[in-house]
Amino acid sequence: MSKLRIGVLASTRGTDLQAIIDEIEAGRLDAEVSIVLSNKEDAYALTRARKHGIKAVFLESKGKTREEFDREMMELLENEGVEVIALIGYMRLLSPEFVQKYMNRIMNVHPSLLPAFAGGMDENVHKTILEHGVKVSGATIHFVDEGADTGPIILQEAVPVTEDETVDSLKEKVQAVEKKLFPKALGLFHQGRLRVEGRRVRIMDGSGK
Prior knowledge:
alpha/beta; globular; 7-stranded mixed sheet
C-alpha cells in the first residue's frame, strides 16, 4: 500500500499539523503531508511545514470570489496527488464545488463534542462551553459537508470540565485529545476502514466488517 497523500489547509498555528508530522516521522502513520496551503501569509503552520521539508504555499484571497480561490487550491492539491484533506484551524468556508469534489475526503477538527457547540471557532467555543456550565467537553473529527460542523462524525473523545476551568486550560486539554484523534482518523481512512452511511461513519475492522 502506498503512502497516504495528505493536503492540509490551515490559517493559524497548525498545532494538530505537528501531531500528524510527528506520527509520520515516528513511523506510526503511513502517510506524507504533500502540501500545506494557507490564506494567511504569516500562519505559523506554513513555517512548521517548511521546517519539515513540506511544500508550503500562501494563496492570496483578496479580490477573488470564494469559488475562484477554491479552484486555485484544487489545482494545487490535484498537482500534488492529494487523496485526503485535513482542515487545521482553517478560517474560511469552503465552496460547494470544493466540498463536492472531495466529498468524504475532507476532515475537520472541532473543539467540542458535536453536534453541541457547532459553528464557533477555537477559543470562542471554549468560552461558550464554560459560560453554559457544561461538565464534559471534548474534540470531534468529522467529514466536511456544506454546513458548518454538520458533517458525519468520525471520532470523538471527551474531557472533563473542572470547577476552576479556564478557556486556556480547557483548550490545552482538548488540543491534547485532538493530537491523538486526527492522526488516528487519517490512519483509519488510509486503511479503508471508514464507511459513510448517511449521517454515520462506521469504523470497520480489518476484514471490512
